[in-house]
Amino acid sequence: MEAMEGGGLVANETKPTNKAKQTSIGRKKFNMDPKKGIEYLIEHNLLAPTPEDVAQFLYKGEGLNKTAIGDYLGERHDFNERVLRAFVELHDFTDLILVQALRQFLWSFRLPGEAQKIDRMMECFAQRYCQLNPNIFTNTDTCYVLSFAIIMLNTSLHNPSVKDKPSVEQFISMNRGINNGGDLPRELLVSLYESIKTEPFKIPEDDGNDLMHTFFNPDKEGWLWKQGGRYKSWKRRWFILNDNCLYYFEYTTDKEPRGIIPLENIQVREVQDRHKPHCFELYAAGSEFIKACKTDSEGKVVEGKHTVYRMSAATDEEKDEWIKCVRQSISHNPFYDMLAARKKKAQKTNVYSKS
C-alpha cells in the first residue's frame, strides 16, 4: 500500500514536471512558428482554445519572443483578430497621456513590418485608448493618426540617418485639422513632442531565439559602380544594405560612409545603360528627389540631389541579388498611403457633422 502510495506520489510529482517541460517546448515552438506553438499548447491542454486565454498567455509573455507575439497578433484570421482585441483589452490606459499609453503598448510586442498588420493593431489600440479616455479626442481616427505621428516623430528625432530633425512647430503643423476637422490643443502637441525628444521609445530587443533580426550582420554588402548625380562619371564604392538604409563607402575600411540612402518610399528597377553592364537603379516613388545625404569634398554632410541612384554590378547574378535584397528591405509599405487616407478622413469628419 505504501509502495502504491509512494508510486502515486512519484506519478503526481512527475505531472508538474511534464507540464513545465511541455510548456517550455510550446514556448520554443511559438518563437519559431507562432501558429504551431499555440496549436501545440492547446493540444496539450496548456492553453484553453479561447481568444482570452491565448491573449493572457501572450500578455504575460514569459519566455516569448516579442517579434513572434507581434506576428501572431497581426495575422488576418478571425481567431487571431479576436486574440488581438482581447490582448489590447488587457492594457489599462486610463488617465495616461497618449505617449505613455503608446510606450506601454509598444513594449508588449514588436510591431511587425507589414502595413496591414500595423493598421489592425493600431486601430485596436486607438479604440481601446478612446474607450478608456473618452474626452481626449473626438473620434478614434484622430487617435490613430496622432499615434502614428508620434511613432514617426520618434524615428525622425532619434534615427541617426535622419539629418533634418523636425521642430516642435513642424510637428504641430503636421497635425493640423486632424481632430474632427479642428486642431488639437497646442499644449498637448508640445508635451507629446517634448516627451519623445527627451525619452525615445524603447523597442523590445529579442533574445537569441530571434532568427529574424540580424542587427550585427548586413543584409547585403559588396562592391558596386555608382553613377554620379551632377556629373555622370562612375565610381567604385563599397555598399552595405542594413536596417532599411543603403550606405556606401570609398573603402571597406572606412568608418564613416560617403553617403546614406534611407529606403523610404524608394523603388528599385533593372535598367540598361550604354556605358555599364548589369545595371539597376533606385528611384523615388512619387517625389522628385530621393531623400539622402552624402559627404562632400570638404567633409561636410550635404543633402543629395539625385532623382535616381544608378548602380552597376559585376555580374548579372549579383545585380539580381542586389535588386532582391533592396526590395526586401524597402520600407515603403502601403502603410503611408493608408495613413494618408486615415488622416484625410479625420480632417473631413467635421464637414459631415455640421451638415
TrEMBL record:
Chain residue ranges for the region called Disordered: 1-24
Sections of the chain in a coiled coil: none
Residue stretches of biased makeup (Polar residues): 14-24
InterPro entries with a match to the protein in the record: PH-like_dom_sf, PH_domain, Sec7_C_sf, Sec7_dom, Sec7_dom_sf
Domain PH: 217-331
A Gene Ontology biological process term: regulation of ARF protein signal transduction
Pfam families, per the entry: PH, Sec7
SMART domains reported for this sequence: PH, Sec7
SEC7 domain mapped to chain residues: 12-199
Molecular-function GO terms, alphabetical: guanyl-nucleotide exchange factor activity
SUPFAM superfamilies documented for this protein: PH domain-like (SSF50729), Sec7 domain (SSF48425)
Protein's name in the database: Cytohesin-1
Gene source species: Vespula vulgaris
